[in-house]
Amino acid sequence: MTSITFHGGVNDIGGNKFLVRDKNTTLLMDFGMSFSEEGQFFSQFMGARGSNALTDMFELGILPKIKGMYRRDYAKHVGFGGDEETEVDGVLLTHAHVDHCAYIPYLRPDIPIYCSEESKLIMQNFDETGTDQYLTMKEKFKIYENKKGEISRAIGDKVKIPRVIKTFQSGEKFNIDSINVNPLPVDHSLPSVHAFILETSQGMIGNTADLRFHGRRSKILKSLLMYVIELMRKRSSHNVIA
Ligand SMILES: [Zn+2]
């Protein structure tokens, strides 16, 4: 059985969080912030609380309550499990605009993020110029042994855990367990945006990402359109034979 659950991005601009299940594979396509949802409760200097952020985001209906998905330190701190295994096999990131990626810092660092090299560099920039934790998670409430051999409680940046980042190339297919992924470039207001065609056990799923038909690289949309047209041709010929 294959299913898609939309935890955001419906009747909204951005906030995409699409959960795809196929056989034993579970993927997220994007994990972004909805400006309209956050705008109802937060403003520039008033956001979710730091370590209690999950409680705030769950209560306000901004993040889905799915156990095993969120970083263990936050989950344990707010009594939302944290010891269970994760079901999520990866996040497919279309691009690094915050309405598609802003909640990645809440995820467990061992959930692989599949993205383009350019998206990785943009998220690295977020980390290096602010307090974000896209590529490196800074674990809280950690007891560790310092250089003097003393037991200490981690504060600040003491315990850093790199996330698993897997970069893909445009047009080069790859598998995540039972799902075959084809990342096709589209043009947008940010470099290296990718649509995804997912081949699941029960058919194809297409996610166009954010795209535009104008601009310097609008012609790259052709590769996506040609691929979709070819798929439709194959499908119609199959239907005729059937
Ligand atoms: Zn965008």
Q: What do you see in this structure?
A:
By secondary structure, the protein is an alpha+beta fold. The chain has a single domain, classed as Metallo-beta-lactamase, Chain A (4-Layer Sandwich). The protein has helices at residues 35-41, 53-59, 72-77, 98-101, 117-129, 221-241; strands at residues 2-6, 18-22, 25-29, 90-92, 113-115, 136-138, 143-145, 151-153, 160-162, 165-167, 174-176, 179-186, 193-200, 203-207. It has a 6-stranded mixed beta sheet with strand order 1-2-3-4-5-10. The protein has a 4-stranded antiparallel beta sheet with strand order 11-12-13-14, covered by helices on one side. A two-stranded antiparallel ribbon has the order 6-9. The longest helix has 21 residues, at 221-241. The two termini are 22 Å apart. It binds zinc ion.
What's the number of extended β-strand segments?
A: 14
Q: Helical proportion?
A: 10-25%
Q: How large a portion of the residues is in β-strands, by DSSP E?
A: 15-25%
Would you identify the CATH H-level superfamily? Ribonuclease Z/Hydroxyacylglutathione hydrolase-like
CATH second-level architecture: 4-Layer Sandwich
**How large is the radius of gyration?**
19 Å
CATH class, please?
Alpha Beta
Terminal CA distance reads 22 Å
Q: Order of SSEs, N→C?
A: EEEHHHEHEHEEEEEEEEEH
Structural class by secondary-structure content: alpha+beta
Bound molecules: zinc ion
Largest sheet: 6 strands, mixed
